[in-house]
Inverse folding.
């Protein structure tokens, strides 16, 4: 879309884009249903435009992005089944708002990986920053290293598996979904959670408000074993389960319109 | 006639009609849920369960923030499975109201349907800010 001119002569993009050049760079090397994007000399928007072009319009199902250079907001908003591989580390807000892709990140990631992910899977070989899986709606998020503070904040579905340890306030205001933390959990685990389940294999510095221990069921064991098998994570550790004590928040107190926001 | 006020928004209200698969189990039986979801299990559908809206069994469609009511008899033990199948039938048919809005309102290049259909058309390339017919910008 061309920029709009105002009376003062200033050209702007009504969608609020800071880089109003909508043309993909056409630099991907495409080989059948596979492609490689070298992100070295591309801006964030150009990388994402090229990614959407080849996935949506060229029928490419497997994309490798090399030299992501810790640029922010890479791979966001992909709404199609495909396989994405990052050879290197993306920065903040990687792969947010995706619906369908299966992503492999051979590096580390910054804040807010997979924010609002709807479906699909993301596997990170290294650590991830704070707010990993913020407002996650569905799908699987596997972090093979440690994660930062407030992982799964406002989580509304899906599964977050952390092979390392988790920072403070993990699962803060969690509303649905599941987290498996194989290492330790720092202070305030599950603070103000509404629902969902958190499984911890290591030590817990302290529980947050209204986060209480729960009994493991056969369904819990089946679920954990299945996820570890799918992502080839070895034998799962013995875990403790935590859930909402239903004292601070509960769905019955919500208005119908609020209830829908957490479904 | 008295106006009926309700806080509920269901899929058939948004669409203005009821869909056949809400009433006929045979229209959803053949769906392969594993085929329709990423990875080696049900992925996001794990979080979809049979709920109830206005006293009727229903499944929540997160793409339109509405309940899709189910009117056929649901065999015991298959509640979640059939809720998921009705939802997926709704989505792959393009009947979800959120998807219907995409053609007109998408601002960015994206597929019209979601990841559940392989060759969906692209939308969002030619978005224009909406204008009211007959409206002129003020002179100052």
């Amino acid at each position: 879309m061309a920029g709009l001119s105002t009376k003062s002569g200033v050209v702007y993009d009504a969608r609020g884009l800071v880089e109003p050049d909508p043309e993909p760079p056409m630099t991907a090397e495409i080989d059948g249903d596979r492609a490689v994007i070298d992100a070295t000399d591309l801006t964030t928007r150009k990388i994402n435009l090229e990614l959407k072009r080849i996935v949506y319009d060229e029928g490419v199902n497997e994309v490798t992005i090399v030299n992501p250079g810790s640029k922010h907001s890479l791979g966001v908003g992909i709404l199609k089944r495909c396989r994405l591989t990052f050879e290197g580390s993306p920065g903040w807000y990687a792969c947010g708002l995706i619906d369908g892709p299966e992503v492999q990140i051979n590096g580390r990631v910054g804040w807010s990986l997979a924010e609002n992910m709807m479906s699909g899977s993301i596997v990170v070989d290294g650590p991830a920053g704070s707010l990993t899986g913020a407002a996650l709606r569905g799908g699987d998020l596997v972090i093979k290293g440690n994660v930062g503070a407030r992982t799964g904040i406002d989580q509304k579905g899906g599964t977050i598996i952390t092979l390392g340890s988790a920072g403070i306030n993990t699962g803060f205001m969690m509303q649905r979904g599941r987290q498996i933390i194989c290492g330790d959990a720092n202070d305030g685990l599950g603070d103000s959670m509404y629902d969902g389940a958190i499984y911890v294999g290591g030590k817990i510095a302290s529980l947050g408000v209204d986060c209480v221990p729960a009994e493991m069921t056969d369904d819990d064991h089946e679920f954990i074993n299945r996820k570890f098998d799918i992502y080839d994570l070895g034998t799962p550790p013995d875990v403790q389960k935590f859930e909402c004590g239903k004292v601070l928040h509960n769905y019955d107190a919500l208005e119908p319109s609020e209830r829908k926001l957490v479904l | 006639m008295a106006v009926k006020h309700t806080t509920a928004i269901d899929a058939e209200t948004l669409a203005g009609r009821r869909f056949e698969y809400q009433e006929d189990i045979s229209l959803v039986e053949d769906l392969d849920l594993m085929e329709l979801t990423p990875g080696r299990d049900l992925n996001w559908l794990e979080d979809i369960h049979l709920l109830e809206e206005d006293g009727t069994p229903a499944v929540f469609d997160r793409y339109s923030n509405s309940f899709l009511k189910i009117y056929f008899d649901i065999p015991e033990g298959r509640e979640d499975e059939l809720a998921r199948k009705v939802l997926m039938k709704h989505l792959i048919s393009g009947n979800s109201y959120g998807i219907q809005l995409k053609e007109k309102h998408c601002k960015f290049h994206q597929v019209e349907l979601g990841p559940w259909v392989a060759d969906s058309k692209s939308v969002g390339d030619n978005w224009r800010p909406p204008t009211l017919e007959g409206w002129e910008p003020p002179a100052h």
In short: Chain B has a mean pLDDT of 90. DSSP finds five helices and five strands in chain B. The longest strand of chain B covers residues 56-61. Chain B touches chain A at residues 7-9, 37-41, 43-47, 51, 60, 62, 65-66, 107-111, 114-115, 118, 120, 122, 126-129 (CB under 8 Å).
